[in-house]
Amino acid sequence: MEFTKGHGTGNDFVLLPDPDGQLDLTPELVAALCDRRRGIGADGVLRVVRAAKHPEGAGLAGEAEWFMDYWNADGSFAEMCGNGARVFVRYLLETGLATPAGAALPVATRAGVVRALVEGGTVSVEMRRPRLYDGSTATLGGLTLPGTAVDVGNPHLVCVLPTGVELAELDLTTAPGFDPTVFPTGVNVEFIVAGDPVDGTDGHTLMRVYERGSAETLSCGTGACAVGAVALRDAGRDTGVIAVDVPGGRVTVTVTADSCWLSGPAVLVATGEINPATLQPSA
């Protein structure tokens, strides 16, 4: 099996080329590939398949040639992954499966079609405008933290930390608790504090995230979009630009009247082959 390893601000993925949808990809195989000791190691798997050759992408084949079949590290599906989409586009361009053009490159996902622009080392993807729709809480250790539920094609809960609670001191080795009646399919939970002003932006936020199906990751693109929308709302704005610092670096979120752009670096670091028969599940 051929693979490529890539990441966007430390949010890393195994990319599997499967243009005609012939790969027998299972939850067990995905989990084994993502195992950081017995596999390649990643936050998730991106299968690169033509939209027309994937049952979930066929209806979008008229809008986009390629479908991003994204799986979490535990073998579960995810509707959308912002950093994954940026790495996916980098892969399409560097392997010649797509060519740069003046217009944005469309990519089909389970959350619909997103568009991407590439400028040097920066890849930007345009996704749906985040929808802030409810208040809820997350529990972590002895803390109960109020948050805002946000839909970015997948579910998020953004929690602003109160004074006296340090972002770096949060223990994210276990999953935060949440209300399953608000999030019946699980949720990505973001914890944020305000950062110092950054030139050219309308705000600056520091973020850590616990992703459903992948645990704490160094970055989460859709999570950054959710955080950007909450930061703008708290500043009394409907649109604007927010710099979001994650453990893996910085991304920029631009919320417009009808969409949201996520911009940052996307890098391919290795290519190779792996024999699936040698992979073992984690103990």
Written account of the structure:
The structure is a single chain. About 10% of the residues lie in helices and about 45% in strands. The chain is mostly beta strands and about 280 residues long. It folds into two domains: about 1-130 and about 265-280, Diaminopimelate Epimerase, Chain A, domain 1 (Roll), CATH 3.10.310.10; about 130-255, Diaminopimelate Epimerase, Chain A, domain 1 (Roll). The strands form two sheets. Strands 5, 6, 7, 8, 9, 10, 11, 12, 13, 14, 15, 16 and 17 form a 13-stranded mixed sheet that branches. Strands 4-3-2-1-18 form a five-stranded mixed sheet, sandwiched between helices. The chain is globular and about 50 Å long. The two termini are about 25 Å apart.
What descriptors fit this protein?
Diaminopimelate Epimerase, Chain A, domain 1, 18 strands, 13-stranded mixed β-sheet, 283 residues, mainly beta, five-stranded mixed β-sheet, globular, 12% helix, 3 helices
